[in-house]
Design brief:
Blueprint lengths: L1 H34 L3 H9 L4 H9 L5 H11 L5 H10 L4 H7 L4 H28 L9 H7 L7 H30 L1 H8 L5 H10 L5 H11 L5 H8 L6 H8 L3 H24 L7
Helix pairs in contact: 1-4, 1-9, 3-5, 3-7, 4-5, 4-14, 5-7, 11-13, 11-15, 12-13, 13-15
């Protein structure tokens, strides 16, 4: 019972608490844009999408899943483009970076892994934005839609509104995080490892599914399996690329239409599997 409380409840509370500053500052910035900023500022944000994927991919490499949650909020308000969101999600590393460093992985290998994630994030993000521009699909900024959905009474001040949004989404994240932690606790890492060991292609697909688990635990498990030799570098990347952490939870909670969220999920999964296979088949994995 004590082990359950520590690994499931306590770690769930800590992981969720780490997100609070990111969520509050993001909502505060969005409230400011909606209520205080001039129209020129909003137009600038809309037009900055061309370079958004490159910037998003670089920001996403910081080992903190709060950035993916912030990106999901910004995309739901259509402040950033879909390509920028995907770039952040694909480059997000969560706990991968500190685990690789702690595992005495060569710094050149660590930089190569980060570089692969950044390049793929930029490439996919820019390609998606280009396709949407060619199809003349452009959505107007609608930060106020979040307020209408959550009934936050924004007229009472941006701080109160931002706090309302933060507490609302934090409760949702906490409940799902506890559920995921409990599932991993009862299933066990050994069972998961047996599905991946020495199984080309299958291991990439299973790893990509694991990566979609909206929790930092996914990156911990996948990186740990790689360090123990259970999976190849390509299989690890197949799971880490779609692993956007709690960003996916936030996206499904606040972004509409819902079918768009499933399309994003499919894009992340496909990118992870294909990229992971290419890394192994081209021999790039031997350089890591």
């Amino acid at each position: 019972m004590e082990e359950f409380l520590h690994e499931v409840v306590l770690e769930g509370l800590i992981d969720t608490a780490k997100l609070l500053p990111f969520l509050f500052l993001t909502y505060l910035a969005m409230e400011f844009l909606e209520h205080k900023a001039e129209g020129r500022a909003l137009r600038f944000l809309e037009k900055s999408g061309v370079f958004g994927p490159a910037l998003g991919a670089l920001v996403g490499t910081v080992p903190q899943c709060g950035f993916s949650a912030a990106a999901a909020n910004l995309y739901a308000g259509r402040i950033i483009t879909l390509g920028t969101l995907l770039a952040v999600f694909l480059s997000t590393s969560d706990e991968m970076l500190p685990l690789l460093i702690a595992g005495n992985v060569k710094i050149t290998s660590v930089l190569l892994i980060l570089g692969i994630k950044i390049v793929i994030g930029i490439a996919v993000g820019m390609l998606v934005d280009l396709i949407l521009r060619l199809r003349h699909q452009k959505e107007e900024v609608h930060i106020d839609a979040l307020c209408e959905q959550d009934h936050c009474h924004c007229e009472k001040g941006i701080f109160r509104s931002a706090l309302h949004h933060t507490l609302h989404i934090t409760l949702f994240l906490l409940l799902v995080t506890l559920l995921i932690n409990a599932s991993v606790f009862f299933v066990g890492e050994e069972t998961i490892a047996s599905l991946l060991y020495d199984r080309p292609v299958i291991s990439h697909i299973v790893a990509a599914f694991l990566g979609l688990i909206p929790n930092c635990a996914a990156s911990v498990v996948l990186t740990g399996f790689y360090l123990k030799g259970f999976i190849t570098a390509g299989a690890m990347l197949a799971g880490l690329l779609p692993g956007a952490g709690v960003g996916l939870l936030v996206l499904f909670r606040i972004n509409r239409p819902m079918k768009e969220n499933f399309l994003i999920l499919l894009l992340l999964f496909a990118t992870g599997v294909l990229s992971g296979l290419l890394v192994d088949l081209t021999g790039l994995a031997s350089l890591i």
